[in-house]
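anyone seen this seq b4? input:
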Amino acid sequence: MRTQKAGQSALLLLDVVEILVQENIEYAVIGAFALSAHGVVRASTAVDALLFATPRRLANLRTLFDRAGFHTELRSGDANDPIPSMLILHDGYNNHVDILGGLRGMDPAVFSRTVDVPFMGVNLRIVGREDFIAMKCFAGGPQDILDAQSAFDSAQGPVDLDLLRAVTRRLGRDAADKLEQVLGH
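predicted toks r here
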């Protein structure tokens, strides 16, 4: 593993991505790390990635990550949980990467809209701006809405509002309402 001390979750992500690429698994980096790629830096100790994977597929991935020396924890949501399953990966320094197995209502085409961003010699697949904003509206907490607003306000070039509204509507009425608040700001 690349990590040598605490505070290096981004380096742990590189080890995670290496395995995902070897397994031909599409992923998108989301959360605060993705926000920084979209032009707004916000400190966070975790790195999040999104897959389109069943709980069974995440369980199989857990085995691969266990063999690679990661500490792992697999969580499954109930029928009402917006995240069906999550694989939490960490090292001995308490760096961690959370892999979400999907989001209820997620557009599977999200992976075709990722942006490749070079980081320490690796091209990371970062969630596209419109999908990022939609996911943050879906999460809906105060920091999430601030992140959505920051990503919208810092856009270099036009934001595809039709796409943004469409992917947000897939995530539910509450997310769509929060998006309109972000856009009306």
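Helices lie at 9-22, 31-37, 55-67, 129-139, 142-153, 161-170, 173-184. The CA atoms of residues 8 and 95 lie 6 Å apart. kinda curious what u guys think
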